[in-house]
Fold this sequence. Notes:
Layout: H1 9-24, H2 36-45, E1 50-51, E2 55-58, E3 62-63, E4 69-75, E5 85-92, E6 99-104, E7 112-118, E8 124-132, E9 137-146
Parallel strand pairs: 1-9, 3-9
Antiparallel strand pairs: 2-4, 4-7, 5-6, 5-8, 8-9
Amino acid sequence: xxxxxHIGRRTAxxxxxxxxxxxxxxxxxxxxxxxxxxxxxxxxxxNRAVNQGRIAIRLPAIAENGNAVPLTVAVESPxxxxxxxxxxxxxxxxxxxxxxASFHFTPACGRAExxxxxxxGETQDVIAVAEMSDGSVYLAxxxxxxxxxxxxx
Length: 153
């Protein structure tokens, strides 16, 4: 004579839900070794080599208030149809959301330069990544010391 066990409807539904969730959820990812900013920059860069130079970042060395830090970024380029800056991405590595801004350019812009004010939560590097029309990528960074943080700090 077979042995049967009786389980309640609630127990069966709970077990079925747990099995379904386990089948749908991806396995836990291993601990990340790169910062979120590095991961985002890696997505932009892909398998291209990262070059130094051509980018000038103008920021104050010390920002007394991180709420409105003036930033100017310029990229050396003839801005012709064959050789121009397509996009410049700005990152603030220690901010809660590191992606600060992206500026898009065309040859009609005449020069690849943009100015804005950014918010910095603490002393950190500001990173500029420029994507060129020929597929090359340039990166520059500058540290800014922040005395009063602008991101709730």
